[in-house]
Amino acid sequence: MAMEREIVRSCVDCGSTRCDEESGAYPYFCLTQQMEEGEKEKLIQAYFDEENEKIMLNAAQIEYEGYCKLCRVEETIEFARRMGYRKIGIATCLGLIRESRILAKVLRANGFEVFGVGCKAGEIRKTAVGIPKECENLGEHICNPIYQAKKLAEEGCELNIVVGLCVGHDSLFYKYAKGVTTTLVVKDRVTGHNPAAALYNAEGYYRAKLFPKKDSASQ
What we know:
37% of the residues lie in helices and 11% in strands. The protein is built from nine helices and four strands. The protein has a four-stranded parallel beta sheet with strand order 2-1-3-4, with helices on both faces. 17% of the residues are buried. The model has no long low-confidence stretch (mean pLDDT 94).
């Protein structure tokens, strides 16, 4: 019988979160405590890169000033405004094209230029990239995140907003995107695009779906 692989503990196993409040005890696996000498100073210096510093300062100020007041759309608008961005790109799933049309309308009303690329743009057959023919039962064309990223870059978009790209497709978009990218909507057709719902119900309704029978939800 194979031995169970030992779990390497990290921040997701911490119940203290001392690093946020600076109270309580460090767990034995605390990443802060394990940092090598000089590593923290190198990280601090990285935030003084001109673009990094501007992003970090604006993000922190928006969080402080709009905490529990601004919705994600408002935060995104405020971030773009403070960063001085004029042209915003939207990488959207066609399943959320209505939401993206509304978003574009909102952004334009706030003075931004908007350019959006849908996931099926380019019309590449799934079988052309090695996807099994059976997958075409959900549609003949691939989601095309590489093209979405390249086209938004060509159009000179200064901020990319991801709206509902599939798991994995969003990964490819982030990989090829140029410039700053933020996510507004995460696709989850089952929960009405609220993936956290499954986590809130992980020990209730979703327990049987999320945890193999032999595993424990308390790991």
